[in-house]
Amino acid sequence: MSISLLARSIAESPTLRLNEEARLLRERGESVVHLGAGEPKNKAPIAAILSSAAKLVSGDVKYVPTDGLPSLKKAILRYTEESYDRVVAPENVIVSDGAKQCIFNILYTLCNPQDEVVVLAPYWVSYPEIVKMVSAVPVVVRPEDGSFIPRFEEIERAVSSATKAIIVNSPNNPSGAIYPEALVSKIVELCERKGIWLILDDIYHKLVFDGKVAVPGTRYTDRDIESTRLILVNGVAKLYGMTGFRVGWVVAPRNLVEIMTNVQAQTTSCVSPVLQAAAEGALTGMQSVVEGLRLTIQNNRDVLMTEMRTFSGVKITKPEGTFYSLPDFRAYMGESVALSRLLLEKARVVTVPGREFGMEGHLRVSFAGSVKDIVEGVARMKWALDPSSPNEIYIGDRKMVRDWL
């Protein structure tokens, strides 16, 4: 079979692979704790369910405008004004099948072969792969001090005459870090001055803790939506716990939205009207569900921090947002893929290797699940790695003895 060089260069999604491995283990009756999932355990908001059900029951489930249902776009316009203090037009919005397709559409629209896209580590696993899918070149900026937030000087050095865009994700997946206002303002100024597109992946922007705020990049530019270099990406997956509905959107200058609409028309045609109705229901329904989810996730974060601090040798930075942490496990093993595999095989705990996020020696540990899973998962990890922990543990109804340390 002849496979294209481009297709062969694209890495498998590690999170989806781990999800499948966990599913297969559970089907075999294994007691698996999933600390790798990028989705909370909550039920979808009732307003979303009722709205999508009404659309489905009507039987009128046909093609809809490629750029999104007018009623959903209206809700997105209001959300944009409330969240970003920006008034935009329907022509500035396109609805896509999740934020991932949004980012693909943006980069496919912007990039020529060998254009460069600056990606800040730690980064979401799909950023470099999507950049490669459009024949552009990912330029990764890794903080020299080993932290999760690069210095502006490091970002500026990575910019060249070939730079077409910079991707900023704050709060950050996988670290949970929020970029400081001073850094965000400098990146915005740099992009506006040099004509570089700044893609702001704000999918977690309201899932923040301890009274912190992820200040939107739009605060630091005076340009209107048609002249700015800022592109906003958002969706309902994380804030409302609606990962399976696959609805995201882009807010951008209308000339870009027009081209992205052409791209989408030739690929996925449109987002299902049933799912768009659900997204509209979430955006227009009671917003207390977002705060309820945020409080639950913050409590989970606190539980994780308490448990991890008893774990000898592991360094963990307190997440300020999202539902992820990125502990440093190099005291035990430097190769995160091997470490993640060991934890799955020995302790039946799913984590995601830090190498996939540009941070070797770390593991992404999600606290999106239940408190029970967090406590049990960390206990199993300690048993598998920490010689000072008890030598025996029960995994499900099986007594396990550690014989590899």
Structure in a nutshell:
Helix content is about 40%, strand content about 15%. By secondary structure, the chain is α/β, with parallel strands linked by helices. It has a seven-stranded mixed sheet, sandwiched between helices. It has a three-stranded antiparallel sheet with strand order 9-12-11. The chain has a two-stranded parallel ribbon with strand order 1-10.
Strand content: 5-15%
pLDDT < 50 runs, ≥5 residues? none
C-alpha Rg (nearest Å): 21 Å
- Cα distance, first to last residue? 44 Å
Topology:
Blueprint: H1 5-8, H2 14-27, E1 33-34, H3 46-58, H4 70-84, E2 93-96, H5 98-110, E3 116-120, H6 126-133, E4 137-141, H7 152-158, E5 163-169, H8 181-194, E6 197-201, E7 230-235, E8 248-251, H9 254-265, H10 273-284, H11 288-308, E9 324-325, H12 336-347, E10 349-350, E11 352-353, E12 363-366, H13 371-385, E13 392-395, E14 398-401
Parallel strand pairs: 1-10, 3-4, 3-5, 5-6, 6-7
Antiparallel strand pairs: 2-8, 7-8, 9-12, 11-12, 13-14
Helix pairs in contact: 3-10, 4-10, 5-6, 5-9, 11-13, 12-13
